[in-house]
Model the fold of this input.
Amino acid sequence: MPKSRNTRNPKPAQPARKAARKSATPTKPQRPVAKAASSRAPKIRTAVPPGRPSKKASIVALLQRPDGAAIGELIKATGWQQHSVRAALTGLRKEGKELVRDKDAAGVTHYRLAAA
Done:
């Protein structure tokens, strides 16, 4: 016995789809981007934000002491690893600051900034 079709709500026939290629141009026109309102007051930036000093500033402060600072002291002050502290010292040298290395009686190397 053949199955009968439901004739109460027949689906409308859809037209055959064409194979469409994607074109390089968009189909919808692009809207221009709205710019932010220029009525806002300009933000003023300070050289050093209020709060704690930067880690570089703390390194320079330790190096300006008469005895200078050992690598261990610089590591404790910044929380950096040894190679990062050495890289910071190299950066100070590249900025034109003269670093002096001295060894104490125990053989620990201390770094300090030379007097200008």
